[in-house]
Specification:
There is one protein chain. By secondary structure, the protein is of the alpha+beta class. It has three domains: about 10-125, Acyl-CoA dehydrogenase/oxidase, N-terminal domain (Butyryl-Coa Dehydrogenase, subunit A, domain 1), CATH 1.10.540; about 130-230, Butyryl-CoA Dehydrogenase, subunit A, domain 2 (Beta Barrel), CATH 2.40.110; about 235-394, Butyryl-CoA Dehydrogenase, subunit A, domain 3 (Up-down Bundle). The protein is built from twelve helices and twelve strands. A four-stranded mixed sheet has the order 3-6-7-10. A four-stranded antiparallel sheet has the order 4-5-9-8, covered by helices on one side. α1 packs parallel to α4 (about 75-85), α5 (about 90-110) packs antiparallel against α6 and α7 (about 235-270) packs parallel to α9 (about 315-340). The protein is globular. The relative contact order is 0.13.
């Protein structure tokens, strides 16, 4: 009985280098993550001890070039994200926050000195970054952020608060987005700067093997050269968010696939009425539906990856994958849980953990509603939400 669904020969669409990345990361997840993830999730423990291994695999800033970054393709990065999330969304989130958000912000918008200072050590896993955009009262509408940076002589002084910031309590540097007299700007804030406080959010019902924090900024004084010189307006953080959203479009497929594989293996072994439940028509119907959704999601993600590698990926296309693939992954995880019956609520099996994690994934980097409106605006030419603010114009 096949475990990994490949009804359409998806493997045949990949080249040798892409398959090698996928195989290598899948082996790491099988050996180093899956045996322990139930315990980590139960204890709300993020395995920071794996960071050097993730760096050695070339997964930190994987799709960035120069400054010690691996410089791999968008498709290779996507396949790696898929395999990491087959272990747990928290692991893929770490790689996403580190590479697609914090490192990407520095790579896209930083000065040469900032790039030289931070990117090589972050690629090696010796420094960890976080990305502070969301606030307690500013999520889908970041233009309403109230964190403010004011000039004081040659320095900047930051005051405000951020919420749901991944990795902040273990980070060495925070990319903080703040209003200024000249619009939204980005700043690199070493986390040992006086006035910077990161507090992990607990308890959580989702993403338990991951770190999300509240950040308090109280008269945080940083030098003028801490500003990201090329970051002007909200388009700057949005460009980083699109990198993360692209990875999510791939990553959620891993959670769906692991849920499917778990359900398929269980159905082949679980005996009821003197036969395995895999022999029942209703069970087979569920398995087929799950496999079809995974196949479709893979094709969507691969198309985006090819477009990205060709330099032709548009933001609304990223919304297609983030919205559609995350919806599909949640449906697969929930359906897989039903095949497990009562055993599905046990930590021994992954689908319920994946389903809980995916509720967070569908919210961060743009909720279902926001991506629906992005696509609605693209289809109709009529924005149904405030899409351009004065802060973005500046």
């Amino acid at each position: 009985m096949s475990t990994v669904p490949d009804l359409l020969d998806f493997d045949g669409l990949l080249d040798d280098a892409e398959r090698e990345v996928r195989t290598r990361v899948r082996a790491f997840v099988d050996e180093r993550v899956k045996p322990s993830i139930a315990d980590w999730y139960d204890r709300a423990h993020f395995p920071v001890e794996l960071v050097p291994e993730l760096a050695a695999l070339g997964l930190l800033g994987m799709h960035l070039s120069g400054y010690g970054c691996p410089g791999r393709s968008a498709v290779e990065y996507g396949l790696a994200a898929m395999e990491l999330e087959a272990g747990d969304s928290g692991l893929r989130t770490f790689v996403s926050v580190q590479g697609s958000l914090a490192m990407s912000a520095i790579h896209k918008h930083g000065s040469e000195e900032q790039k030289q200072r931070w990117l090589p050590s972050m690629a090696r896993g010796e420094a960890i970054g976080c990305f502070g955009l969301t606030e307690p009262n500013s999520g889908s509408d970041p233009a309403s952020m109230t964190t403010f940076a004011r000039r004081d002589g040659d320095d900047w002084v930051l005051n405000g608060a951020k919420r749901w910031i991944g990795l902040a309590s273990i980070a060495d540097v925070a990319v903080i987005w703040a209003q200024t007299d000249e619009g939204v700007r980005g700043f690199l804030v070493p986390t040992d700067t006086p006035g910077f406080t990161a507090t992990p959010i607990a308890p959580k019902m989702s993403m338990r093997a991951s770190i999300q924090c509240d950040i308090a900024l109280s008269d945080v004084r940083i030098p003028a050269d801490a500003q990201l010189p090329e970051a002007r307006g909200l388009r700057a953080p949005f460009s980083c968010l699109n990198e993360a959203r692209y990875g999510i479009g791939w990553g959620v497929i891993g959670a769906a696939r692991d849920s499917y594989e778990t359900a398929l293996a269980y159905a082949g072994q679980r005996m009821q009425f003197n036969q395995p439940i895999a022999s029942f028509q209703l069970t087979q119907s569920k398995l087929v539906d799950m496999a079809l959704e995974i196949e479709k999601a893979q094709l969507v993600a691969l198309r985006l990856g090819r477009l990205k590698d060709a330099g032709r990926l548009a933001p609304h296309q990223i919304s297609v994958a983030k919205l559609s693939n995350t919806r599909a992954a949640i449906a697969v995880a929930r359906e897989a849980r039903t095949i497990l019956g009562g055993n599905g609520v046990s930590a021994e099996y992954s689908p319920m953990r994946h389903a809980a994690n995916l509720e967070s994934v569908r919210t961060y980097e743009g909720t279902d509603e926001i991506h629906t409106l992005v696509l609605g605006a693209h289809l109709t030419g009529i924005p149904a939400f405030r899409s351009v603010t004065e802060g973005e114009k500046r």
